[in-house]
Amino acid sequence: MVVGLLFDTTRCIGCGACASACKEQNKLPGPVEDHLTAYTWTTVQPRAGVSVRQLCMHCEVPTCASVCPVGALQKTPEGPVVYDSGKCIGCRYCIQACPFDVPKYQWDRPVPVVGKCILCADRVKEGRPTACAEACPVEATVFGKREDLIWDARNRIRKGPGTYVNHIYGLQETGGTSVLMVSGVPFRELGLKTSLPPEPPALQTWQVLSKIPDFVAVWAVFLYGVHWITSRRETVARVEQAGKGPKHPGDRA
C-alpha cells in the first residue's frame, strides 16, 4: 500500500503547525526557517495570496536514490523516500539531482549529512499519519493511500471548477510523486516547477550508469575510502584528546 499526502492551498491558513510538528517529530534543532534547510524539512510560504508548503515530494521513482552510489537514499514500499546517514559518503549527488531542489546539506557540522523530509516513515509503518497531517487544524494537508488521495483531489476539482486549477500537481510530474497538491492559483505562481517531464529522470540516470558500471563502481569505492579515512582520523583525534585529560590526583607528573 503506497501512501502519501494531499495538500490543498485553498484550505491552508498559513499557521505553520505542520512545520512545527515536523520539527518536534524529527527532533530538529532551531526555529522553523522560512525556506528548506537541513534542519527545516517543511515550511509554509506566502505566495500569490495563498500559502503553499515546501517539502520533499517523495517521487515514485526518486532520482536522488538513483544517483546515490552507496544506497543512502531508498524508496520504501509504503512510499516515503528515506535517508540513512550511516551510509552517506557526502558526495551530494542527491542535492544536484533532485528535480524539486529539496535535499539540503549540513554545512555547519564537521561531519555533515543531508537533511530532508522522510514522510514520517516510522509512523507510516505503524499505520499512523504523518505528524504534519495530524497537526493541521483545517485538513489542508491530509494523509492516506495515494490512490484515494488522487480520487479525493479529482473530486474537489470536479465539484469546484471555479475554485481549483484543473490539475493535480504530482500526479504525473517526474513520473508521479507521493505528495500531491491542488490549488486555486496556477502552480507556477506558487514557485513550483511546471515544466518537469512526465518521465522519471531516474530512468535516464540508470540508462547512463548502465553504460559505465566500472567507472561508477570505482568512484564509489574511492568515495567510501575517503569517507573511511576521514572518520578514522576523527576517531583517532578523539582518543588522543581523551588521553590528554586531567590525570588521577594520586598520579605523579
Mean of pLDDT: 87
Category from helices, strands and their pairing = alpha+beta
Count the helices. How many? 8
What is the number of E strands? 9
Could you say how many structural domains there are in total? 2
Question: Could you tell me how far the N terminus lies from the C terminus, measured between alpha carbons in angstroms?
Answer: 67 Å
Shape annotation: globular
Considering the chains and any ligands shown, give keywords for the structure.
253 residues; alpha+beta; Alpha-Beta Plaits; 2 domains; two-stranded antiparallel ribbon; 9 strands; disordered C terminus
SSE topology sketch:
Layout (H helix, E strand, L loop, with lengths): L2 E6 L8 H10 L16 E5 L2 E5 L8 H5 L5 E3 L5 E3 L9 H5 L6 E2 L8 E2 L5 H5 L5 H5 L5 E5 H14 L19 E4 L18 H11 L1 H31 L10
Q: What report would you give on this structure?
A:
The structure is a single chain. The chain has 253 residues and is an alpha+beta fold. The protein folds into two domains: 3-206, Alpha-Beta Plaits (2-Layer Sandwich), CATH 3.30.70; 213-243. Helices cover 34% and strands 14% of the residues. The strands form four sheets. The chain has a three-stranded mixed β-sheet with strand order 8-1-9. Strands 2-3 form a two-stranded antiparallel ribbon. Strand 2 and strand 3 form a beta hairpin.
